[in-house]
Amino acid sequence: MKTLLIVYHSLTGGTRQMAEAAASAASLEPETSVRLLLATDAEPADVLAADGYIFATPENLAAMAGRMKDFFDRTYYPALDRINGRPYATMICAGSDGQNAARQIARIVTGWRLRAVADPLIICTRAQTPDAILAPKTITPEALGRCRDLGAALSSGLAAGIF
Ligand SMILES: Cc1cc2nc3c(=O)[nH]c(=O)nc-3n(C[C@H](O)[C@H](O)[C@H](O)COP(=O)(O)O)c2cc1C
Questions:
Q1: pTM for this structure?
Q2: What is the DSSP letter of 137?
Q3: Fewer CB near the terminus (10 Å): N or C of the chain?
Q4: How close is the Cα of 28 to the center of ligand 1, in Å?
Q5: How far is the C-alpha of 75 from the C-alpha of 158, rounded, in Å?
Q6: How far is the CA of 58 from the centre of ligand 1 (A)?
Q7: DSSP H or E run through 130
Q8: Ligand 1 test: best mutation among 9, 122, 133, most atoms within 8 Å of CB?
């Protein structure tokens, strides 16, 4: 049995819907156990116990969300040199960009020696005004389908020993 850990933060619900979509599709693989954790709840032991990862965060102020960064701050050194080579993917929920949050995560997990098994999945909600940015988000079915595909790919790849 393999374990896929999905760690996420979400302020207005977009990233949560993306992470839940990935988790529900990943859970269809019987040989993979899926753990969906808020960044604030994820501990070094959760990172060490997983065989693969999906990191999901909003892009806020051209960076990953602070609570996601806090997750990496708390787990980076406890996991360093103990998870080398494990597969990961990143999902970003952004208004219009998302590239920098993806870059930040890629840089951090390069230190962990994780292996990217997909390009970052960036979903833009197109929220531009303060009201729209702070409103609850609804991720489109098409975008959720892409999140499901990513979760399923990670999960089945882990189960099959492809990664
Ligand atoms: C304080 C703040 C800063 C933001 N900065 C950016 C940004 O730099 N680039 C971007 O594309 N979107 C930015 N956004 C938009 C969010 O990424 C977008 O609303 C996304 O849906 C948030 O994900 P969530 O619904 O999971 O919280 C920002 C939102 C907030 C609240």
A1: 0.98
A2: P
A3: N
A4: 30
A5: 22
A6: 6
A7: helix 130-134
A8: 133
